[in-house]
Specification:
Number of domains: 2
Shape: globular
Radius of gyration: 19 Å
GO molecular function, one term: endonuclease activity
Pfam families: LAGLIDADG_3
CATH architecture of the largest domain: Roll
CATH class of the largest domain: Alpha Beta
Number of strands: 10
Order of helices and strands: EEHEEHEEHHEEHEEHHH
Protein name: DOD-type homing endonuclease domain-containing protein
InterPro entries: Homing_endonucl (IPR027434), Intein_endonuc_central (IPR004042), LAGLIDADG_dom (IPR004860)
CATH superfamily of the largest domain: Homing endonucleases
Distance between the termini: 51 Å
Number of helices: 8
Organism: Candidatus Harrisonbacteria bacterium CG10_big_fil_rev_8_21_14_0_10_40_38
Helix content: 25-40%
Length: 252
């Protein structure tokens, strides 16, 4: 059922069955929606809304959903803020499918980690990371004003502590990580991973991908770190980087 109606006489096409079956793309998009999306009901219908300051990922999601809906840009309300790109899809079948996957309106503070098939768990987590995660390289000045790379850090953020508890349990069941603490910040909860844990996460999230189902900007931060700390690159990491880096990555 590819046809939907918004308002009176306005018809847009979208893949209404997108969330009914699991695959890598579906799991990734679902993870991103758990981070930077929401479902809502108005007097005009049921909606999925996905937003990001990264234009690239919103257009990817629109294409994956085979959506003809327009992407709107929303200007920031404060100086130095970033423009946000918003995809709003009115469709009761998509809404109902997402509800079955564990989403609901006003989810931010209470959402639980959903049931995801193990085969697609890393895709879901990578989608969530691209929405509400961050990665950064910390540097400091050494002798002769040269910068020394100190650490690579991955952070997952959520308004729901329950969600992060489930995320941490899911990660522990699939790889060896040392992090075990969830931190409370002013408006949310966070999990922060050390360099060794962040490298293990990189290998888990990006290994054995058949296509570029990720946000390029965040992947490039990992690539930047490994170029600075080449001794951290093993054969597995090297294969990932050579597969997806825009600039050819050295081998050997």
């Amino acid at each position: 059922m590819p046809l939907i109606i918004i308002g009176v006489g306005i018809k847009y096409s979208v893949d209404e069955d997108f969330f009914k079956n699991w695959d890598s793309t579906t799991a990734y998009v679902l993870g991103f929606i758990f981070a930077d999306g929401n479902v809502c009901i108005s007097n005009r219908g049921k909606y999925l809304v996905v937003s990001s300051v990264d234009r690239e990922i919103i257009f990817k999601i629109k294409n994956w959903l085979k959506s003809e809906h327009k992407i709107c840009s929303k200007k920031p309300n404060w100086p130095n803020g970033k423009t946000k790109f918003v995809l709003r899809i009115g469709n009761r079948f998509i809404y109902d499918s997402l509800m079955l996957r564990g989403l609901y309106p006003n989810k931010s503070l209470t959402i639980d980690f959903p049931i995801v098939p193990k085969r697609y768990l890393k895709d879901f987590i990578r989608g969530y990371f691209d929405g509400d995660g961050c990665v950064y390289v910390e540097k400091s000045k050494g002798q002769g004003e040269r910068f020394i790379v100190k650490r690579l850090t991955i952070v997952f953020t959520s308004g729901s502590k329950l969600f992060l508890i489930g995320l941490l349990e899911a990660l522990r069941s699939n790889l060896v990580i040392r992090q075990s603490k969830i931190y409370k910040s002013n408006r949310s909860f966070q999990i922060r991973f050390s360099t060794s844990d962040s490298i293990a996460l990189f290998k888990y999230l990006y290994g054995n991908l058949e296509s570029e189902i990720f946000l390029r900007r965040k992947f490039d931060i990992f690539s930047y770190y490994f170029r600075l700390r080449f001794t951290r690159v093993d054969n597995y990491i090297g294969d990932i980087l050579r597969c997806f880096c825009k600039v050819p990555y050295p081998s050997g």
